[in-house]
UniProtKB/TrEMBL annotation:
TM regions (residue ranges): 24-43
Ranges for domain LytR/CpsA/Psr regulator C-terminal: 83-174
Organism, as annotated: Streptomyces edwardsiae
Domain of life: Bacteria
Gene3D superfamilies in UniProt: 3.30.70.2390
Descriptive protein name: LytR C-terminal domain-containing protein
One Pfam family in the UniProt entry: LytR_C
Keyword entries, A-Z: Membrane, Transmembrane, Transmembrane helix
């Protein structure tokens, strides 16, 4: 065969590019596609488990926080002084304290029951301002209301005690009941406590 090119030897020159390069391109494109699909799936799973910053998730979180805050600041339902009967008992050696204290409690709206000396269990054994004693149910009801009238008094409950009456046992350090204005402020704080700040991590 004439012309510019001449074939010599027993091998013919290849007239097209090898197929290997085309296969590499196809494999590369397929790999990129698989990685893309896998990455997209991973992102979707992360969003499912973390909320993904969705506006709906944010709204749900805010609603939960608002609900928690409303429960935190809900006012307590405490008994009124007029529904609480107080026995005033004197555990000191000073005479007349029980009657004087009972008269003041009556002026503040409490019902007064027994006015007497303390029983042997407490007589001359109360070193502080006083002890407030009642049944177990009074711990979060009557005793806090009575406690507002005598700051610093120890609160105790007797599981075996029946009824709703509570005792105010006057101790050695007793001078007088808490001032009425201060007692009223303490009662108001009990009925409407300050809200607890929400945790930044959760809200």
């Amino acid at each position: 065969m004439g012309g510019q090119y001449r074939i010599t030897g027993d091998k013919y020159p290849r007239m097209r590019r090898p197929r290997r390069r085309g296969r590499l391109v196809v494999l590369t494109v397929a790999s990129v596609a698989v990685l893309g699909v896998g990455g997209w799936g991973t992102i979707q799973l992360i969003e499912v488990f973390t909320g993904g910053g969705d506006s709906a998730s944010a709204v749900g979180t805010k609603a939960a926080c608002a609900d928690r805050a409303s429960r935190t600041v809900a006012p307590k339902v405490l008994p009124r002084p007029g529904t609480i009967t107080v026995n005033v008992l004197n555990a000191t050696t000073r005479g007349g304290l029980a009657q004087k204290t009972a008269d003041e409690l009556k002026k503040r709206g409490f019902k007064v029951g027994e006015v007497a000396n303390a029983t042997k269990q407490y007589d001359k054994k109360v070193k502080g301002t006083g002890v407030l004693l009642g049944p177990a149910a009074a711990l979060d009801t009557s005793l806090p209301v009575l406690g507002a009238q005598l700051a610093g008094a120890e609160r105790r409950t007797d599981p075996a005690r029946k009824g709703t009456e509570v005792d105010l046992i006057i101790g050695d350090k007793f001078q007088a009941l808490t001032g009425k204005a201060d007692a009223d402020r303490a009662l108001a704080a009990l009925a409407d406590p300050e809200p607890t700040p929400a945790s930044k991590k959760n809200c």
